[in-house]
Write a structure and sequence with these properties.
By secondary structure, the protein is an all-alpha fold. It has 14 helices and no strands. The N and C termini lie far apart (66 Å).
Length: 334
């Protein structure tokens, strides 16, 4: 009587099916990283918080519409006329601009430790064993950070666009139908910039915290500088405008806008400045203040598109080059 082995053979020794070479290894890394990010609550909390401006706008418009319904025919028409003056293209741009700091935090959450922690754990020895190559690892990590970062940046704008398309068409929401896809393209470029820089810096360290502190420091210092440039530019615009009206009866606005060309470019000399600048250039707008209407609140004009693409492309290439160079299975000393 034969005995039945109680332990099943779960190995592949008895497998006699086809053996195909491994393909799209980078996608395995990217998918795993993306799914891990999606399981983290801080990621979704940050995504919701980044759309705070859109929530405020929707709340204000809801209140105005409610007041318009109880203010009589004349009062209601005035409120409706006020809502119709909203520049919806610039509203989406402002919402994206006001979420920049939170996008930076989300980028750190996703990518600051992704390479540094692998360096600390010497995990590259395992990751870069055959058949996974250094290129597979670099592409997988890049795409694995880019996908969730882009989604977190695009989701609030997308929800606002869908809601506005259904609810505010009477107020001219779809007057500029290319505004939304143009902004999405700008958001994609911004996500690529964040991804390249964060991964490049992360690859230099063995602790994610140090990489995060360095990236946040660069981001905040550059942002403070650009805000100073904005204050200088707007103050100069207002002073010149008021002085010209008092002394000469007014200057042509185009002449005023030609002043301080260097200051205008320096305003975009930060990570969030580059993101906002390329979005302005793609959307074809200089932007406006919230509920600006027809008043004259000076804004820093959109930068030229081609130089912005060159600067952003150079930073992306530099970040990826550092990342690729630092990723090694073994460190050769001497």
């Amino acid at each position: 009587m034969s005995q039945i082995n109680p332990i099943a053979d779960l190995t592949y020794r008895s497998y006699d099916g086809p053996l195909n070479p491994p393909t799209r290894i980078w996608w395995v890394i990217a998918r795993t990283m993306t799914l891990q990010v999606f399981k983290r609550k801080p990621y979704w909390i940050g995504t919701v918080l980044s759309g705070w401006y859109f929530l405020v706008m929707l709340t204000i418009i809801f209140v105005l519409e409610t007041l318009g319904g109880t203010a009589g025919e004349q009062g209601g028409s005035e409120l409706n006329r006020f809502i119709s003056t909203i520049n919806w293209r610039d509203t989406m741009l402002i919402g994206f601009s006001f979420g920049q700091l939170i996008y930076m935090l989300i980028a750190l959450l996703i990518g600051a430790g992704s390479i540094a922690n692998d360096n600390r754990a010497n995990a590259l020895l395992v990751y870069l064993s055959k058949p996974c190559t250094r290129l597979d690892y670099v592409v997988g990590k890049f795409v694995g950070m880019l996908i969730p970062l882009f989604i977190s940046m695009a989701l609030p704008t997308t929800i606002f666009f869908l809601y506005g398309s259904l609810s505010y068409r009477g107020y001219g929401f779809l007057k500029e139908p290319l505004a939304y896809p143009s902004l999405l393209f700008g958001i994609l470029i911004s996500a690529i910039l964040h991804t390249a820089l964060v991964l490049g810096i992360s690859s230099l360290f063995k602790q994610g915290r140090l990489a995060g502190v360095l990236y946040a420091g660069i981001y905040l210092v550059a942002n403070l500088f650009t805000q100073l440039m904005k204050a200088v530019y707007i103050s100069d615009q207002n002073l010149v405008y008021v002085a010209s009206r008092a002394l000469f009866g007014g200057m042509i606005e185009s002449e005023i806008a030609m002043r301080n060309p260097i200051v205008k470019l320096l305003f975009y000399g930060s990570i969030d400045g580059l993101s906002i600048g390329i979005s302005k250039a793609i959307m074809g707008t200089d932007g406006s203040a919230p509920f600006d209407g027809q008043s004259r609140i000076p804004q820093v004009p959109a930068p030229p598109t081609f130089p912005m693409i060159l600067i952003i492309g150079g930073l992306v290439v530099a970040g990826v080059a550092i990342f690729y160079r630092k990723v090694k299975a073994v460190e050769v000393i001497g």
